[in-house]
Amino acid sequence: MSRPGKNPLVPCAVPVVFLVAAVFVICTPAAATLVLTDQSLVPVPPLALGSGEQARVTFAVLPSGDTTFIGTHTLQMQTGLSGARWDIQVIANGRAAAQQSASGTSAFVNGYLLSYPVTSDVSLTVALNGTVPSGAAPEVTILQVTELDTAGQPVPGSSILISAPVVSPSAVPAVSRQETQSSLPASQPSPTKAGSSAVCLGAVAAVLALFGYARVRK
Fold it and tell me: Could you give the CA distance from residue 177 to residue 143 in angstroms, rounded to a whole number?
């Protein structure tokens, strides 16, 4: 007769759970880590509506698994600038490894272009030109980078956002134009007029002196 209250399946359930969890962790590829290392925005924010903007951003690709980036994943880049033009450069071990251009609000980089052995030094430079749209206030997205998995879904914690504040043209202080010429006060005669008056007075004085001298001789 068996003892009541004992379930022979319970001792086996715990090891099975741990085994399934371990298999899930091993089979799930780790996402790469993008680290922002440099950025340049021209002009410097705050930006004006309708103004052009040039951005140059560099990321370091740090491995989180067997490679620097999962080859079956995709790097998605988006911007809020209108008429955007992209120039994307992959640098591996100090040399240009891949280059691609794109236009529009989105650009994509295939994972195999970023996938190298973990001992490699891989970085990504994005040059972006566009225009701040009229409805962008109070801020505009300059660049947002997100890693997408094989199903096209964002990998949690992989997104990097770079944005800038936007002001209306009326809020930008106008630079007053400095006068390049200055006029003399109205109360002071110009040098030319003053010289002419002195010559006339001198001539009148000379004529009067001659008349006086002639009368004295008579």
Answer: 36
Report d(CA 107, CA 77) in Å as an integer. 5
The pLDDT tens digits of the residues spanning 11-53 come to 444 443 333 333 333 344 455 689 999 999 999 999 999 999 9
Contact 132, 92 (CB under 8 A): no
State the Cα–Cα distance between residues 74 and 108, nearest whole angstrom: 7
Yes or no: say if 68 and 31 are a contact pair by the CB < 8 Å rule. Answer: no
User: Domain range spanning residue 109?
Assistant: 29-169
Tell whether pTM > 0.85: no
Q: Which residues pair with 160 in a beta bridge?
A: 145
Tokens of 156: 């949690």
CATH label of the domain that carries residue 35: 2.60.40
d(CA 61, CA 114): 8
In the chain, the number of structural domains is 1
Q: Is residue 181 part of a domain?
A: no
Cβ contact 48:132 at 8 Å: yes
Tokens, residue 36: 């922002």
Token duo for residue 74: 């995709």
Residue 124: inside a domain: yes
> Within a domain: residue 149?
yes
158 in any annotated domain? yes
Mean pLDDT confidence for 107-132? 97
Beta-bridge partners for 124: 59, 90
Residue 104 has pLDDT above 50, yes or no: yes
